[in-house]
Amino acid sequence: MKRLRGMQAALVLVFLMGLSSTAWAHTDVTPQEAKDLIDANDNLMVVDVREEESEYCDENPTPPVPPGHIPGALNYPWSSGVLQERYGELPIDGEILIVCRSGSRSNQAAEFLDSKGYLNIYDMTSGMSNWQWETVVCIDSDSDELNDDLDNCPDDYNPNQEDIDCDGIGDICDGLIDCAEGVNCDNECDGVYNQNDNCPNEYNPTQEDTYPPQGNGIGDACDCECDFDCSGGVDATDVGAFLTDFGRSTYFNPCTNAVPCNGDIDCNVNVDADDVTLFLEDFGRSVFNNPCPACVEGAWCVYP
Question: What is the average pLDDT value for the chain, to the nearest integer?
């Protein structure tokens, strides 16, 4: 049996090593397919890898290349190495469409992002030379170094693009009409106003509150399940408290309402490996680094 388990562990290790060296493959799309993607997906990011002044902003390019760029396209030039230096600014799990003039540089850029583990990359083959739809040139009406098509308030200087109510309109433009005196603000843009959000500073659109199972009014996204001493962090003191009860189970000194456990996060009367995983997710949080919310008074678990 031990030998079989050893073989299974070795196979899992080989599998994981294989995954670590896997390069994701991007998807080639025609200009028409690219246009359809843009129209159908508001979350799609368009990244133009041409050079800024000579191509991305060019108002009089050589036909058949149209002037300027696709509206909303970000500019990360490939030939001058900008994308290679700043690719980390792009979301690794986001859907990204790469474009260039003819499709050569976009293919190189797509393969580069593949090698970095990006999951949803599209390469527009044949490039802007075959783009037949709307384009915009580089106009910065308010001189904040953001093109109007990328500016959430193009007529008012707002280089920080602050938008506390996440309505797509810069605060300087809408006067915080929808976020007066802290009401109807959405700090993390998850679609839930702060006053109704069980975790207002973390993105948690589903508002899950499953720890403890009966809920405690604090979203799982920001709750600290193992801040046992209510210090605002999960530190060595909490490790000691956790280890004191680790190993308690249904068959050995089970957790009860009368004798509760520090660390039975999922409230199954055991302090086991599942609880270790949950503990480690919060270990290291402190008053200076992602502090825990205020502790909820009372027992964490309520057992039958």
Answer: 86
Rounded to whole angstroms, how far apart are CA atoms 282 and 268?
A: 20
Beta bridge partners of 294: none
Round to whole Å and give the CA distance between 268 and 254. 9
Distance CA 277, CA 283 (A): 10
Q: Yes or no: say if 103 and 120 are a contact pair by the CB < 8 Å rule.
A: no
The model carries a pTM of: 0.60
Query: Could you give all domains of the chain from N- to C-terminal order, each with its CATH number?
Result: 27-130 (3.40.250.10), 148-182 (no CATH), 224-304 (1.10.1330.10)
Contact 234, 273 (CB under 8 A): no
Bridge partners of 123, per DSSP, are 28, 98
Beta bridge partners of 95: 120
Do the Cβ atoms of 232 and 282 come closer than 8 Å? Answer: no
**What are 197-248's pLDDT values in tens digits?**
898 888 889 999 988 888 888 888 888 888 888 888 888 888 998 999 999 9
Give the pLDDT confidence of 67-81 residue by residue, as tens digits: 999 999 999 999 999
Residues in the chain: 304
CA distance 120 to 164: 29
- The H-assigned helical ranges of 42-174 are 82-86, 104-115, 171-174
> Is residue 84 within 8 Å of 112, Cβ to Cβ?
yes
Q: Which of 10-14, 33-37, 161-165, 185-189 has the lowest mean pLDDT?
A: 10-14
Distance CA 24, CA 167 (A): 34
Q: What is the pLDDT of residues 238-256, one digit of tens each?
A: 899 899 999 999 999 999 9
* Residue 184: C-alpha distances to residues 157, 174, 202, 216, 223 (Å): 24, 14, 16, 23, 23
